[in-house]
Task: structure prediction
Amino acid sequence: MFTAPIASMNTEAAPSGLLQLIWLASPALPIGGFSYSEGLEAAIEHGWVHDADSSTAWVVDQLHLTQSRGDMAVIGQAIPAWQNGDVERLKALNQWVMATRESAEMRLQTEQMGRSLLDWLRNLQQASEAQLSCCAQLPTTYPLALALALSLAPVPLEQALQAYAFGWAENMTQAALKAVPLGQSAGQRMLARLAREIPLAVQTALQLTDDERQAFSPMLAILSARHETQYSRIFRS
Result:
């Protein structure tokens, strides 16, 4: 358990829970999410993603097959663990995330974004010293760091996961716009489809137990490994 009280999300007057979620989901958050495509660029290189329809299908599949069953489920379980100061639970969830990163690029992404988000929390004094000390013992992956940030926002768990999912969807849409490439209207249609799919993905994530969480996407892992040596690329994954 933490020896220090749970921190609020700021040092003076807290913004509303909605504003905190918008802030955390914003592409302007300086954690580097815009620099990763999570295998999408490699799928484009191999011709599997080549237009608006195939881009949308790819991202929707990834939302349901990898995000909702893996990282979103972890975040949903880690938020109450942060609020309750359950260090052992947080360590177990963090270890599971690390074990699911099947390529060097995937591991790099979760570690780098986790460190950057913790730096953001530290710089804005939005987490307690006890929480930051716990993070230093892990090292913290991005899902665990984001769960910490979301745990400080006074919002229902479902809304916290919706904010995460939309932020992820926006980053993936921007990756498709740059790498396929697609136009802005196509990107908005993709986001509209993802916005309709996100509630179901959130409900799936919230219902999963430890035994039901999974990260089985072998072709994504293969694409990520191939991306490491891809001749021409824009993104880091």
The mean pLDDT is 91. Residues 34-227 form a domain with the Urease accessory protein UreF fold (CATH 1.10.4190.10).
